[in-house]
């Protein structure tokens, strides 16, 4: 029963993330989507628990998707959950430069390969940081994030 792990900050989850999750769910028997507490990134807008809740909301229609969270090394989390592959979305060549190094390190440490999905063209410009910026200033993000996420952004920025 092949199991994929899609790690990310998901702060917030976008339609680009959801596209990769849905496509992965078609190819794997089980998909674990895990929000990471990433100390290398600036302070998160949403807590780890809030990000998990948003992910659960927007993937509820996918029976083979499970939501999790972790801190520390991705490979430790993956091996504890008996993952067969990592899946990462790529928006641009610049993503590939960073993701390739991580994929090679992760495979060296765990033996788990990474599969890359190019993001659907209509979502290739989406980045959670840009969505947060638009939402912070009252912009309409309804075409960038699922409705429950857009609502949480409005609430977070008191709009």
CATH topology call = Rossmann fold
The CATH superfamily bears the name HUPs
List the quaternary state of the chains: single chain
CATH class: Alpha Beta
Task: For the largest sheet, list the strands in their spatial order.
Answer: 3-2-1-4-5
Cα(first) to Cα(last) distance is: 45 Å
Summed up, the helix count is 6
Major sheet: 5 strands, parallel
Compute the gyration radius: what is it?
A: 15 Å
**What portion of residues is helical?**
40-55%
User: What class would the helix/strand composition place it in?
Assistant: alpha/beta
> How would you sum up the global shape?
globular
Structure description:
A five-stranded parallel beta sheet has the order 3-2-1-4-5, with helices on both faces. The protein is of the alpha/beta class and 159 residues long. It has helices spanning 15-27, 48-58, 74-80, 93-110, 128-136, 147-156; strands spanning 3-8, 30-36, 65-70, 85-90, 113-118. The chain has a single domain (3-124), classed as 3-Layer(aba) Sandwich (Rossmann fold). It is globular, with a radius of gyration of 15 Å. Helix 3 (74-80) packs across helix 4.
Any key phrases for this structure?
Rossmann fold; 159 residues; globular; single chain; 6 helices; five-stranded parallel sheet; alpha/beta
Please render the helix and strand layout as text:
Layout: E1 3-8, H1 15-27, E2 30-36, H2 48-58, E3 65-70, H3 74-80, E4 85-90, H4 93-110, E5 113-118, H5 128-136, H6 147-156
Parallel strand pairs: 1-2, 1-4, 2-3, 4-5
Helix pairs in contact: 3-4
